[in-house]
């Protein structure tokens, strides 16, 4: 087993290595660290991980007694890691972000790591299709992998594994060339299709194979789009036959749908049947319908139909806005399924009582509804960063090739991470630019470090009992309210902790409370046969309510989301919803909980604007040059049809108000002008003239926004004189 070590003037750290992947760096005459697996005592293991993330140079020895070693260069802030305790030891894996992240920055080559001798060609094809937005056809994997290897678009990386660790035997690692661009990938795919080395999957129509119908243009290039346009009708027929709907109006519906106190309309009944059929293949279904189409009765009909199929009772959790709970109990459940048992959860104590009295005894009614407010579901303990403040901290300096570099430095007013002990720093472009003005590393850290007032507004003292019941004075920091999530700037560890009200001052709390969503996820997993989420679109963000919804959805057997506004036009509004409702399908598409940017690039619309900089004189009396300064890309409204095909078509039911077949009253808007009475008109004219005069004076002295509030003010004065 090899040993990874780090050494400077004051520190010597080493830990056992069971796997390492490197890339030869000819310019530095060293090896670049790509991946490493460590297992040793907790402190040295985590310390080495922190040094790797900070970009420190490491050494690899054959054993602890060896004097010779190989140098490893690391790239600052270019790694992801995971650490887990194993008994008294800690196991850590450090991976370059090029092997983990879905979206890579320009100039970073993709790295593919295949453990235990997996199917390299299949993994490469999945990455090939995902990175370049191309189709994934499993039968193509061997041919595309072979061609890319022959054209040197894939290079092998150096791999060493401990022979005593069988889990890593057969590990392989590859790096894609910088020249392997999206244009080159499409060119390779087009030539392989034209040469009939690969074929598109055959359909059910008489469409000729692409290799027979495709002909090169004047430049010798093959335009696949011509094939698609020529045989579009045949391909459309193929799609209709292959993607048959889960339900249509000619199919029968479940009898239980009509066996309720209120009977749904025909359009609602068919919608219910479509949802029931969708549950055969999916855990989560979304009912997206207009306001007034009866989403409530549709969801209750789904619950009733599923309950009739169950022989062991049926429990439904309703996650709804708190203000609508009385309406659900009285007007919806009470009038539609009066025989159903209803329980309203008002606090986390009610969830615990329900678990003790019903769940532990297996007492599940034939059909019962448990109503939980979305605000109550997220209520847990207040969070605060777990940081250590030091008035002074000693920082060992690295060895340098000049005489004036001291061995240690003292940095004042710092926050330390309890995991890696690293000083919390700002890594913005401005902070890095200011730090590079200093030659000494300690001075750079002092320039970037976060002081007390950067994170906290004050502190309180409290008395705590230590070993032997001795009282000790402790300090509680009052962090800024804007800090709702904090990760260590050095090792990336999540440092948010639950505040303990028994020993810390918490507004409105004297004792600890549990989050209902967390309690359901941990102790009631599998109990709820169906979770109905009303106003699903309100959980689209990565908020406390959204995380609570995700926890509850993960603990339920089926999930039905109700919404009248599925998307606001942006792909990001659907990402978190789909990840929480159907994570398996998202993972199959190469997405995870950190793939928001990739999801937007795949299924949304990105816009990037730029501007020309001012003319810069390149030399005295010479020419001038102008460069384009690009703003960061941002998402704008626009959804790709692929989003519907890949993630919505099989799990979404749409119902419009016009589908109900009801006689609807047409809306006819006609403006009606009403004159002011004399007193109101006179007062309004005085107000209008005085305000206009003041606005003109402000505009004359340079206030360009003087008239911004003029129109709203005069309109309100005309329409609402009583205000």
Automatic annotation (TrEMBL):
Keyword presence, Metal-binding: yes
Coiled-coil ranges (or none): none
Domain Helicase ATP-binding: 260-603
PROSITE patterns: RUBREDOXIN (PS00202)
Membrane-spanning intervals of the chain: none
InterPro entries listed in its UniProt record: Helicase/UvrB_N, Helicase_ATP-bd, P-loop_NTPase, Rubredoxin_Fe_BS
Keyword annotations of the record: Metal-binding
GO terms of molecular function: ATP binding; DNA binding; hydrolase activity; metal ion binding
Pfam family, one: ResIII
Entry superkingdom: Bacteria
Record keyword Metal-binding present: yes
Protein name from the UniProt record: Helicase ATP-binding domain-containing protein
Lineage: Bacteria, Bacillati, Bacillota, Bacilli, Bacillales
């Amino acid at each position: 087993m090899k040993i990874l070590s780090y050494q400077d003037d004051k520190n010597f750290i080493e830990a056992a290595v069971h796997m390492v992947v490197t890339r030869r760096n000819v310019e530095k005459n060293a090896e670049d660290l790509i991946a490493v697996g460590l297992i040793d005592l907790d402190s040295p293991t985590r310390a080495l991980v922190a040094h790797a993330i900070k970009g420190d140079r490491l050494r690899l020895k054959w054993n602890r007694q060896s004097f010779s070693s190989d140098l490893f260069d690391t790239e600052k802030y270019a790694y992801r890691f995971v650490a887990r305790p194993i008994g008294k030891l800690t196991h850590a894996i450090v991976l370059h972000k090029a092997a983990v992240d879905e979206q890579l920055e320009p100039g970073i080559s993709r790295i593919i790591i295949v453990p235990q001798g997996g199917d390299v060609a299949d993994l490469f094809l999945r990455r090939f299709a995902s990175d370049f937005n191309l189709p994934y056809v499993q039968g193509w994997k061997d041919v595309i992998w072979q061609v890319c290897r022959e054209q040197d678009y894939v290079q092998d990386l150096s791999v060493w594994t401990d022979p005593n660790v069988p889990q890593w035997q057969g590990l392989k690692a590859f790096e894609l060339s910088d020249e392997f661009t999206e244009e080159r990938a499409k060119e390779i795919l087009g030539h392989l299709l034209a040469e009939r080395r690969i074929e598109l999957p055959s359909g059910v129509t008489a469409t000729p194979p692409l290799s027979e119908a495709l002909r090169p243009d004047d430049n010798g290039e093959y335009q696949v789009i011509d094939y698609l346009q020529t045989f579009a009708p045949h391909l459309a027929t193929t799609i209709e036959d292959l993607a048959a709907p889960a339900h249509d109006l000619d199919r029968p519906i479940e009898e239980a749908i009509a066996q309720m106190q209120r009977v749904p309309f025909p359009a609602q009944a068919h919608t219910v049947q479509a949802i029931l059929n969708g549950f055969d293949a999916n855990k989560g279904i979304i009912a997206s319908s207009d306001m007034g189409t009866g989403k409530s009765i549709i969801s209750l009909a789904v619950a009733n139909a599923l309950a009739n199929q169950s022989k062991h009772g049926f429990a439904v959790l309703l996650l709804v806005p708190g203000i609508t709970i009385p309406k659900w109990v009285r007007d919806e459940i009470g009038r539609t399924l009066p025989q159903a048992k209803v329980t309203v959860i008002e606090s986390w104590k009610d969830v615990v009582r329900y678990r003790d009295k019903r769940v532990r005894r297996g007492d599940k009614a034939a059909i019962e509804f448990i109503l939980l407010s979305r605000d109550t579901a997220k209520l847990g303990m207040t969070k605060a960063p777990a940081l250590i403040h030091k008035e002074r901290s000693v920082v060992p300096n690295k060895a340098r090739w000049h005489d004036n570099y001291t061995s240690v430095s003292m940095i004042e007013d710092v926050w330390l991470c309890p995991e890696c002990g690293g000083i919390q720093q700002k890594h913005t472009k401005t902070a890095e630019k200011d730090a590079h003005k200093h030659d000494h590393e300690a001075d750079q850290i002092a320039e970037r470090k976060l002081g007390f007032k950067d994170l906290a507004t004050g502190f309180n003292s409290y008395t705590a009992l230590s070993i032997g019941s001795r009282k000790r004075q402790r300090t509680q920091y009052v962090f800024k309210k804007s800090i709702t999530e904090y990760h260590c700037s050095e090792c990336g560890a999540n440092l948010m902790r639950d505040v303990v009200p028994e020993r810390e001052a918490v507004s409105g709390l004297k004792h600890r409370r549990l989050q209902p969503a967390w309690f359901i996820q941990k102790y009631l997993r599998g109990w709820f046969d169906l979770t109905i989420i009303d106003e699903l679109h309100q959980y689209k963000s990565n908020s406390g309510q959204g995380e609570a919804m995700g926890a509850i959805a993960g603990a339920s057997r089926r999930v039905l989301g109700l919404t009248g506004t599925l998307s606001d036009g942006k792909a990001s509004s659907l990402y978190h919803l789909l990840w929480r409702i159907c994570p398996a399908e998202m993972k199959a598409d190469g997405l995870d909980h950190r793939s928001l940017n990739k999801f937007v690039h795949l299924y949304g619309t990105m816009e990037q604007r730029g501007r020309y900089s001012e003319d810069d004189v390149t030399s005295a009396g010479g020419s001038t040059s102008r460069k384009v300064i690009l703003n960061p890309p941002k998402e704008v409204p626009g959804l790709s049809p692929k989003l519907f095909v890949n993630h919505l078509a099989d799990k979404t039911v749409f119902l419009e108000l016009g589908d109900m077949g009801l006689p609807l009253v047409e809306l006819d808007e006609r403006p009606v002008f009403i004159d002011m009475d004399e007193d109101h008109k006179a007062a309004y004219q005085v107000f209008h003239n005085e305000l206009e005069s003041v606005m003109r004076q402000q505009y004359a002295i340079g206030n360009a926004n003087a008239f911004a509030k003029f129109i709203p003010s005069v309109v309100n004065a005309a329409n609402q004189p009583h205000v």
